[in-house]
């Protein structure tokens, strides 16, 4: 144990809270904050854990926490209450270094997911988790998407945000044009003027990028125009739409990696 | 307008709140309570709307509410606040008759989803929505599942709970045995000793029932034993599991109705 923290005004605690609250601060610092025993342990496998905070009760309940890397701080319950964001907090919190990825990593033959203005953190997190599950090589987020390292997104992704490259880009059309120039097939998910998913080939040797828009608005016309094909999930008329996380995950399953 | 309600202690308001809060009371009365303009309009297409409550602001914003069936009640804002369960209430609420369905409706050649102890209302609602989307003929819920007409489940199902028969059963094994006696293939979703989904035939002329367990526990051994086949969604080792609503929806997509 490196130190015991007894004050809610402790500088490290304030720093962690600021990471949790502000996307701009996370970017500036290149760090993010996560809460929960399982989530912190999962994240620590693939991201650098710099600081771990836990209560005495958590230390007793989960002795394996002591084996995690980084500096460890015992926090009093009232300090943990300040750090906590969920209804039943476990008293375990971590500050991690954000993995840095750029569009230069996108390569021919790869399998990618691109999200345009998907604002719901639960949907972004779910889609990161499904992309990791189905062997995708990276996820590209347009501006206007929920932040991948915000607390709610991290919880929904169950740590998947550090399991595969997540690249925050600006507008998608130039990104997609660059991918197509590398031979990557870009498939827009859209309800109209599209082919049913069941008849779309699942395998693209040159690489594939599945492009999904927000639940309410779908993709912009510019982004659809920047793609090479358009696919939809056919449905009965008994529902108006599918949840965006569900629809996207079904597409990811259809275009999953070889061998799955 | 049948009446203006100015008191939070109004008998109709108290009745509606009790329907929202208690599954036992919903069963006793054969009615349920729903909140939200879109949800109430969707539900009214397929379920009997008996009483509709709305604020003056909602009546002005959505004049189409006046065309809905049932008795209409204008409620003051403080009464609406008592009925409301969501962070940004729209001031629209309805009391509906619960559609009644039984296992007698299960028929050879049909396509069913059975859930065992899926406790999360969001997952149950999402799976009802996906089952309706993909042409399933009914959903069977074991005891221990989230209540299909509870407010959170209704929100996640977006009204799908009244679009297809939802049957609340006890334990699943005898239900599955009866389905198999009718020639319906029962497929358990399980991680171990199972065949990968991609190699499972998608079409069962005698009928099919997809059986899904809870996110944490999976299916009980008895229920797996009562099924005729076992399937899993293959994944990379970069995630431990998929969200239950996601995994179930991918299975429903795979076993979707003909013509989709």
Record keyword descriptors for this entry.
260 residues, seven-stranded parallel β-sheet, five-stranded mixed β-sheet, alpha/beta, elongated, 12 strands, homodimer, 10 helices
Structural class of chain A: alpha/beta
Mean pLDDT of chain A equals 95
What characterizes the major β-sheet of chain A? 7 strands, parallel
Oligomeric assembly: homodimer
Order of helices and strands of chain A: EHHEHEHEHEEHEHEHEEEHEH
- What's the total helix number of chain A? 10
Strand adjacency order, main sheet of chain A:
8-7-6-11-9-12-10
Q: How much helix, percentage-wise, in residues of chain A? A: 25-40%
Report the portion of residues of chain A in β strands.
15-25%
Measure the end-to-end span of chain A.
43 Å
Uncertain segments of chain A: none
Total beta strands of chain A:
12
The largest contact between protein chains, plus residue counts on each side, is: A-B, 32 and 32 residues
Radius of gyration of chain A: 20 Å
Keywords (chains A, B): Methyltransferase, Transferase
Protein name (chains A, B): RNA methyltransferase
InterPro entries (chains A, B): Alpha/beta_knot_MTases (IPR029028), MRM3-like_sub_bind (IPR053888), Ribosomal_eL30-like_sf (IPR029064), rRNA_Methyltransferase (IPR051259), SpoU_MeTrfase (IPR001537), SpoU_subst-bd (IPR013123), tRNA_m1G_MTases_N (IPR029026)
Domain RNA 2-O ribose methyltransferase substrate binding (chains A, B): 33-102
Short synopsis of the structure:
With 260 residues, the first copy, chain A, is α/β, with parallel strands linked by helices. Helix content of chain A is 34%, strand content 20%.
């Amino acid at each position: 144990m490196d130190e015991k923290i007894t004050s809610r005004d402790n500088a490290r605690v304030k720093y962690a809270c600021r990471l949790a609250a502000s996307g701009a601060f996370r970017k500036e610092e290149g760090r993010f904050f996560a809460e929960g025993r399982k989530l912190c342990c999962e994240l620590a496998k693939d991201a650098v854990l710099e600081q771990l905070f836990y209560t005495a009760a958590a230390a007793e309940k989960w002795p394996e926490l002591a084996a995690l890397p980084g500096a460890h701080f015992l926090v009093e319950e009232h300090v943990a209450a300040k750090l906590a964001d969920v209804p039943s907090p476990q008293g375990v919190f971590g500050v991690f270094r954000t993995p840095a990825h750029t569009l230069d990593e996108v390569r021919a033959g790869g399998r990618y997911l691109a999200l345009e203005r998907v604002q719901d953190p639960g949907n972004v997190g779910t889609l990161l988790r499904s992309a990791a599950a189905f062997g995708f090589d990276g996820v590209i987020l347009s501006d206007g998407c929920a932040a991948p390292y915000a607390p709610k997104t991290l919880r929904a992704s169950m740590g998947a945000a550090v399991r595969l490259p997540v690249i925050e880009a600006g507008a998608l059309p130039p990104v997609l044009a660059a991918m197509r120039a590398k031979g990557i097939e870009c498939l827009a998910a859209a309800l109209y003027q599209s082919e049913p998913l069941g008849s779309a080939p699942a395998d693209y040797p040159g690489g594939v990028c599945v492009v999904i828009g927000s639940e309410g608005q779908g993709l912009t016309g510019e982004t659809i125009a920047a793609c090479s094909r358009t696919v939809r999930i056919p449905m009965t008329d008994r529902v108006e739409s599918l949840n965006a996380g569900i629809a996207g995950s079904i597409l990811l399953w259809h275009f999953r990696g070889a061998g799955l």
